[in-house]
Design a protein that fits this description.
The chain is of the alpha/beta class. Helices cover 36% and strands 14% of the residues. It is built from 11 helices and 12 strands. α4 packs across α7. The longest helix has 24 residues. Bound molecules: pyridoxal-5'-phosphate (PLP). Pyridoxal-5'-phosphate (PLP) binds next to α4.
Length: 351
């Protein structure tokens, strides 16, 4: 606390990211990173730009990356916004598009960065309770609002809302902007990008951090109609002209260009997820149906905080949110085959 702080700083409640341990040898299943490395072509592309060119600023518009993403997702480059992580893209979205007369709506159990951005930008919001089975019921959003945001699949539940429900939401709220945060869509969901040409009130946000194994590179993007993108560009160009450095642009482009590797690794994570769900159910866990690279689980007899602490003693990190309604759940990222076996062994010893 300091008397030199701006007023808004006093009331900020910052986001707490999952632990990045300083010691080696831990099995990290706590932040939904990809267990597999990024494509070797990404590493090559990064090496290729580490030279005297770093003297120069990067392209402020990251044109090559926007064109690559546009081609990949069958949209125009001016329908693509890119940023230094999807968290940064989301921050610009909150400031540029979600502050209006009526409140912003999002689920009560969801990505906990949303209320943080509302605090930062002083945006009025209401949290809409998920149903008891943690599903989003779109009819619950029939109340005064100017905007709606949710992850699909939702985090930390992993539950997927079908595209038909999203389309219904777009049709029934033509005057609200609907933002779909698709951080986990590549693990078995159907992207709402297919709808952006038909609904001017839709913005889809994605990240390269999870499905493309590039959490360390910090690249995210949004796709929507050109006016929404222009609003985001205005905010971005009032904040940082060069959010993506030369390495981030080169690595991200290379990732989209190696589609075979991407498809193979996503399928592997999904196969591992199916294996892990079966094993966990045999150990007495109830597993929320997941379309993401994590599972949200509750043990029918043992306390979640106890299990998390006991796993940590056995060098396995998982995420426990000590929050109303979900304090008996654990969110466990899908690891590679070896990590998942180690998790099951540790759980067998603990329970
Ligand atoms: C991980 C995550 C993000 C942030 O991804 P970055 O691009 O790494 O900032 C955004 N939304 C949800 C729902 C996430 O789980």
């Amino acid at each position: 606390m300091s008397r030199f702080w701006s007023n808004v700083v006093h009331d900020l409640v910052p986001y707490t990211p999952g632990e990045q341990p300083k010691v080696a040898g831990l099995i990290k299943l706590n932040t939904n990173e990809n267990p597999y490395p990024p494509s070797p072509k990404v590493i090559e592309a990064l090496h290729a730009v580490v030279d005297d060119g770093l003297r120069l600023y990067p392209d402020p518009n990251a044109h090559v990356l926007k064109e690559t993403i546009a081609r990949y997702h069958h949209v125009q480059p001016n329908q693509v916004f890119v940023g230094n992580s999807s968290d940064e893209v989301l921050a610009h979205v909150f400031q540029a598009l979600l502050k209006h007369e009526q409140p912003l709506l999002f689920p009560d159990i969801t990505y906990s960065f949303y209320p943080v951005y509302c605090g930062l930008y002083q945006i009025a919001y209401q949290q809409i309770p998920l149903r008891d089975d943690f599903t989003i019921a779109i009819t619950d959003y029939q109340r005064p609002n100017s905007a709606i945001i949710f992850p699909n699949p939702n985090a930390p539940t992993g539950l997927l809302l079908p595209l038909t429900a999203i389309e219904q939401l777009l049709v029934t709220h033509p005057n609200s902007i609907i933002v779909v945060d698709e951080a986990y869509i590549d693990f078995g969901g159907e992207s709402a990008i297919a709808l952006v040409d038909r609904y001017e009130n839709l913005l889809v946000v994605q990240t390269l951090s999870k499905s493309r194994a590039l959490a360390g590179l910090r690249v995210g993007f949004a796709i929507g109609n050109t006016q929404l993108i222009e609003g985001l560009e205005r905010v971005k160009n009032s904040f940082n002209s060069y959010p993506l450095d030369r390495l981030a642009i080169a690595g991200a482009v290379a990732s989209f260009e190696d589609d075979a590797y991407f498809v193979e690794k996503c399928a592997q994570v999904v196969a591992n997820r199916n294996w892990l769900i079966k094993e966990m159910e045999q150990l007495g866990f109830e597993v929320v149906p997941s379309h993401a690279n994590f599972v949200f689980v509750r043990h029918l007899r043992h306390d979640a905080a106890f299990i998390a602490a006991a796993l940590r003693e056995r060098k396995v990190l998982v995420r426990h949110f000590n929050l109303p309604r979900i304090e008996q759940y654990l969110r466990i990222s899908i690891g590679d085959e070896q990590q998942n076996r180690a998790l099951i062994m540790a759980l067998t010893a603990v329970l």
